[in-house]
TrEMBL record:
Organism: Paenibacillus antibioticophila
Coiled-coil blocks: none
Protein name, as recorded: Glycosyltransferase 2-like domain-containing protein
Gene3D superfamilies, A to Z: Spore Coat Polysaccharide Biosynthesis Protein SpsA, Chain A, Tetratricopeptide repeat domain
InterPro entries: Glyco_trans_2-like, Nucleotide-diphossugar_trans, TPR-like_helical_dom_sf, TPR_rpt
Lineage, highest ranks first: Bacteria, Bacillati, Bacillota, Bacilli, Bacillales
Keywords: TPR repeat
Length: 624
């Protein structure tokens, strides 16, 4: 049976050290601790697990401290961990070492403050006394380069969890600034491929994406056989995307997908970029590929091979008018990871007018409440999306919130009398319910309520005058400014949710009487909430007067296509293609011809797409 020494360097780790050592004590034969200047109870905690505690003066060099630790190890293998890490409950290190390889890569699961974890691979276990040592000040790594061909490596099944990159921890340790400073020193002294890569990662973490691109590009040609190459290419593409170079980012990932077909993160990021470019067919294939692969690869964010790809597919299907398929995808996520799907599920359910009974059943079946924190999260999401079931859950769990929160619950429960009583009993209006008060003032036709929310809505006198004119059903002339328009269309959406259709109709008529161009924006709202026939009727009236309006013909085409009015859809889509020969228009026309079983025209459109948009994958000759 192989023996293992855990070697650690620590400084002021009293909050996490005991968890780390407790997870490892039964897995290792020896623990070596190097303290670099703790002023808290770190050393005392360590003494509860080992007497091999040594002190080392910090010289801004992690490799030097690591090398100090391994010189005290006496076991066959050395395990490297940080204090903010811990071994998984299912870890079995000795079983993993049965093959007696020279070194092992381990999956490290990084937990973030948003609950979305990412996984990377690191060399954490290696044979003792065969010449391994660390190099690099910050991202210290084992010196493999010159000896790699002589050594044999394996992969551990055991997982290490890492909590040091939550936002709070990053602030506590000031890692951002420390990393930049130390990496700059290291890169200047030794611009090795690994150091260049880590300098790029450091800039990536602090959102300096232009500099990240620079260092990733410098590292790439020197890193072709390195284990971190998939991560380098993925982060290079993400950085390019952040600085607006979408096509270049996609080109990087397309090449990476050929080199590393089983790296889920590469396909996921491809899908994200395709979506941003409105290349929906290719995006769909990328996310479906992620589901096929599952969570695998040297570096990945947890869930991209599962629930996160399904959520992206749900957004994609909703964007392309396939609400039913979007709903199915979100339901799948609700069954497996309801916390991440809940907000999107509630919003889509409201737009699709899913009954409250069904929504309640889905929540009850999939979101299990076992403690106060889980209840708080559910209530917060219901409150934030203004779902009418918010009132139900407050009552079910006997929660007595602040008055302004209860006002929202009563309002969306349509108990207007109780909402009025609560509102009039408040000393002041909380700014977070200002739009709800505006909604209530329109429902009650109560002008006095508006005076209390002008400041909260950031409205000037002239803007508030327009709001009041609309409330009094007075005629307005011209287009509203951006601020007022945004507020009014938010109001229209909430009227739909409350099914206050008479008020909704009156307000729409006022807007259209002032500017007929609002028909398109209102038609979009009808489209979003499934009032397809109303949308078609409203938008069709603009066919002759708005003959070059791209949004109009795209909307009409989508509505007719979704409702199987295929000849009408053909009329609108071909007109759209004439005035907007974008990829998005071509994809719509192709989908239409495919649905019509018009294979000749479908093939012609596909060939045009391949010629005009060479970055598109699905239309290439080998996919025909």
């Amino acid at each position: 049976m192989k023996t293992i020494t855990l070697c650690m360097i620590v400084k002021n780790e009293e909050d996490v050290l005991a968890r780390c050592l407790s997870s490892a004590k039964e897995q290792v034969d020896e623990i070596v601790i190097i303290d670099t200047g703790s002023t808290d109870s770190t050393v005392e905690i360590a003494r509860g697990f080992t007497d091999k505690i040594y002190f080392f003066e910090w010289i801004d060099d992690f490799a030097a401290a690591r090398n100090e630790s391994i010189k005290y190890a006496t076991s066959d293998y050395i395990l490297i961990m940080d204090a903010d890490e811990y071994l998984d409950d299912q870890a079995n290190l000795r079983a993993d070492l049965m093959d007696n390889y020279d070194y092992y890569y381990t999956s490290i699961k990084n937990e973030t403050s948003l609950g979305q974890n990412f996984i990377h691979t690191g060399l954490r276990i290696f044979k003792n006394k065969i010449g391994f040592e660390f190099e690099n000040r910050l991202h210290e790594n084992i010196n493999l380069t010159e000896r790699a061909s002589e050594l044999v490596y394996g992969r551990m099944k055991s997982i290490i969890h890492h909590t040091g990159y939550t936002d709070l921890k990053m602030v506590e340790k000031d890692k951002y600034n420390r990393n930049k400073r130390l990496m700059s020193i290291e890169v200047e002294a030794n611009p090795s491929p690994y150091n260049l890569f880590n300098m790029g990662k450091t800039y990536f973490l602090v959102s300096e994406y232009d500099k990240a691109v620079e260092f990733f590009k410098r590292a790439y040609p020197l890193s072709l056989n390195r284990v971190y190459l998939p991560e380098l290419l993925t982060k290079l593409a993400q950085s390019l995307l952040e600085i607006g170079h979408k096509d270049e980012a996609l080109s990087v990932l397309k090449g990476a997908a050929v080199l590393f077909p089983n790296e889920t993160a590469i396909h996921f990021n491809q899908g994200i970029i395709y979506c941003k470019l409105n290349y929906f067919k290719d995006a769909e294939q990328c996310f479906l590929k992620c589901l096929l692969l599952g969570d695998q690869g040297t570096t990945l964010e947890e869930g991209i091979g599962g629930y996160r790809s399904r959520l992206e597919l749900a957004d994609l299907y909703a964007e392309t008018g396939n609400s039913n398929q979007a709903y199915k995808e979100i339901l799948e996520v609700m069954r497996s990871n309801s916390l991440f799907a809940l907000s999107k599920y509630l919003k889509l359910a409201m737009k699709m007018d899913i009954s409250f009974d069904e929504v309640n059943l889905v929540i009850e079946s999939n979101y299990k409440i076992s403690n106060i924190s889980e209840l708080q999260i559910l209530l917060e999401i219901l409150y934030r999306v203004r779902h009418p079931l918010f009132h139900h859950y407050l009552r079910k769990y006997n929660v007595d919130p602040q008055k302004h929160v209860l006002f929202v619950a009563e309002l969306y429960n349509k108990d207007y009398e109780e909402a009025r009583n609560l509102l009039y009993s408040m000393d002041d209006i909380n700014s977070e319910v200002a739009k709800d008060v505006l909604l209530f003032s329109y429902i009650l036709k109560d002008m006095t309520l508006l005076n209390n929310i002008q400041v909260h809505l950031n409205l000037g006198k002239s803007e508030m005058k327009i709001i009041k004119q609309l409330l009094k059903n007075e005629k307005i002339v011209g287009h509203l400014n951006t601020n007022v328009e945004k507020i009014i269309f938010n109001l229209l959406e909430r009227l739909i949710v409350l099914k206050e259709f008479e008020i909704f109709q009156t307000l729409c008529e006022q807007l259209i009487s002032g500017d007929s161009g609002y028909r398109i924006k209102i038609g979009q709202l009808f489209n979003d909430y499934g009032f397809d026939e109303l949308a078609i009727d409203m938008l069709s009236s603009l066919y002759n007067t708005e003959s070059n309006n791209i949004t109009l013909f795209r909307l009409l085409g989508d509505l007719c296509f979704r409702n199987k009015y295929l000849e009408d859809a053909k009329l609108f889509y071909l007109k759209l293609l004439q005035i907007d020969p974008s990829y998005s228009a071509y994809e719509r026309v192709y989908n239409l011809y495919e649905t019509l079983n018009d294979t000749d025209n479908a093939l012609l459109i596909k060939q045009e797409i391949a010629t005009k948009f060479p970055i598109v994958e699905w239309a290439k000759d080998d996919n025909q």
